[in-house]
Amino acid sequence: MNWQADWGLRFRMFVTMFLLFALYIVFAGVITAYVGGGLLLFGLMFGGFSLVQYYFSDTLTLRSMGAKTVSADEYPQLHASIERLSQQADLPKPKVAVVDSKVPNAFATGRNQKNAAVCVTTGLMNSLDQEELDGVLAHELAHVKNRDMMVMTIASFLSTIAFMMVRWGAFFGGGHGRGRGGGGGGIVVAILVSLIVWIISYLLIRALSRYREYAADRGAAAITGNPSALASALLKISGEMDKVPKDDLREEAEMNAFFIIPIKSGIVGRLFSTHPPTEKRVEQLRDLEREMQTF
C-alpha cells in the first residue's frame, strides 16, 4: 500500500480554514463597529502571543506534558523505529521524546515537517509489542506528513481569541469606555457575537480533528503496510486507559487533541471529542487490511 495524497483531508482543511477566515472577518467588523478598538486590540495582542507559541510549539508542548527529549543511547529501539518509519514516510527524522506516565498514549507536535517531535509515554511502550508500537508511531508521523499540527494550531488559535474575548469582554469594554453601539449594549452585542463565533469555530475544528484521525490511520497503514497492528494497538490502548487512575488522566486531559486515543470525560466529552470512536477506526483499518489482501 503506497502513500497517497489525501485529497479529502486537504479539501476539509481548506473548507475549514476558509470558513474560519470568513467568520473572523465578520467577527472583526462587528467588534470594531460596536466596541471600537478595545477588544480588537486585545485580540491582536493575544494573537501575537499565540504566534510566538506557534513558532515554539514543539518545545512548549513537550514541556507542558513533562516530556523529555531522549537520545539514541537512552532509547535505541525507539529511535531506530522512528528513523526507519520516517524513511518509509519520506520525512526528516523528528525529535524523539518520552513522558514518564502510566497513561498509554502518544502524540506529535511541531509547526512543520522539519520542526516536529514524536512523543510516547512509558505506559505505551510497556503496553504494546513492537508491531503495535510501529503502528502508533506511523500514525503520529502521518500527522506530521499531513501537516495536521500546523492547521489545528492555527484553527485553535482563532477559536481561542473568540473565547478570550467572551471571557474578558466585559472587563475591556464595561467600565473602561463605551462602545460605538451606545452604552453597555455594544459590549453585550460584542460578547454575544464572540460566543457565537467561538461555538461555530469549536464545531468546525472538532469535525476536522475527527477526520484527520481517520486520515492518519490510513497514512499509518500506508507507511507500515500493517493496518491490523494499529487496530490492535488502538484496542489495547483504549482498554488500558480504563485502568489508569482518574487523577493521572485529569492531569493530561488538556492534551486530548494531540493524543492518539483521547481521554474520555463523560457523555458530553465523547459527543464533542476531537477523535472518532475507536470502534469505527478499528473497523476502517480492518477494511484496509482486507483490501490489501486482495492485491
Automatic annotation (TrEMBL):
Keywords from the UniProt entry: Cell membrane, Hydrolase, Membrane, Metal-binding, Metalloprotease, Protease, Transmembrane, Transmembrane helix, Zinc
Membrane topology of the entry: Multi-pass membrane protein
Recorded GO CC terms: plasma membrane
EC number: 3.4.24.-
Free-text comment on the cofactor: Binds 1 zinc ion per subunit.
Positions of transmembrane segments: 12-31, 37-56, 149-170, 182-205
Principal subcellular localisation of the protein: membrane
GO molecular-function terms, A-Z: metalloendopeptidase activity; zinc ion binding
Cofactor requirement: Zn(2+)
Gene3D superfamilies reported in the protein's UniProt record: Metalloproteases ('zincins'), catalytic domain (3.30.2010.10)
UniProt-listed GO biological process terms: proteolysis
Domain Peptidase M48 stretches: 76-288
Localization: Cell membrane
Binding site for Zn(2+): 139, 143, 213
Coiled coil: none
Active site residues per record: 140
Signal sequence coordinates: none
Similarity section: Belongs to the peptidase M48B family.
Protein name: Protease HtpX homolog
Organism in which the protein naturally occurs: Natrinema salsiterrestre
